[in-house]
Design a protein that fits this description.
This protein has five helices and 15 strands. The protein is α/β, with parallel strands linked by helices and 256 residues long. The protein has one domain: 5-stranded Propeller (L-arginine/glycine Amidinotransferase, Chain A), CATH 3.75.10.10. The protein has a three-stranded mixed β-sheet, with helices on both faces. β13, α4 and β14 form a beta-alpha-beta unit.
Amino acid sequence: MPDTAYLRAVPDAFAACVTSVPAVPPLDPALARRQHAAYREALEAGGFVTVVVPADEAHPDGSFVEDTAVVIGGAALATRPGHRSRRGEVGPVAAVLAGTMPVSRMRFPGRLDGGDVLQVAGRVFVGVGSRTNAAGVAALERFARGSRLVPVPVAGVLHLKSAVTALDDGTVLVEPGRVDESVFEGLRLVRTAPGEAHAGNVVRLPDGRILATAAAPRTAGLIADAGFEVTAVDVSEFARADGGLTCLSIRVRGGR
C-alpha cells in the first residue's frame, strides 16, 4: 500500500464549525476549500496518494478528519470524538478505511480524538484533556496491543498535536509551555518560535520534507536550522476554526 492521506471535503456548513471563540468575520467555506485544495496538492507533491471522503452538510467540522480514526499497525480504530456533535462523522470515514484495512470501533464511555494521538519512536503519546478521556486511552491501549502508550495531560490547547508533532522518528516539534516535555525523554526537541500560534502542528511528508503553516515563518526557520527542508501552506481559515495541518488528513504510511 502506498503512503496514503485520507481527507474529507469542506461543506458549506463549515461556517458553523465548533470553535473555542466565535469566528469574526464568519468562517468562509469558499476560502477554506481553496486552502484545502492547496493542502491536498502539497501532500501529493510530498509523496502521498490522497483519497477524499465526500463532505456532509450535517457535520460542519467534517474536514478535520484526523479526529475520526487512528491507524496503528495496519489497522484502524474508529474513534468516539470528544465533542458530541462530531460523532456522526465517524461512520463514513470508517467505511472508506475498511476498503483497505481492518477497522475496529470505540464504544462508550471512551472518548478519543485522533488529534490527541502522536506516534513517534515506537511510542504512542496520547493527550488527555477536553476531548480525550482515560477510558478512551484505555480503549486505544487495548486496540494497539504491543505498542507503548504514554498518556500526556493537555491543557490550554485543543489537542496534543496542536502543540507537538513529529519531524522524524527521533525528533519532535514542541510549543513550549503546552505540555510536560519530560515525557519525550530520548527524543530531540525543536521548540517553536514565541508568539507563533499553531506552529507546533506540522506534517512530515513521505519525501522527508516538513509541511508547515505559512503563518509561522520564524518557526519554519528553526525547523530548517534543525536540518529539515520546509514547505509552507496557508491554512489560516482552518486555524480560525481551531484546526491545523494534521487535522485535515489521516496519514497512513506504506507497509503500516
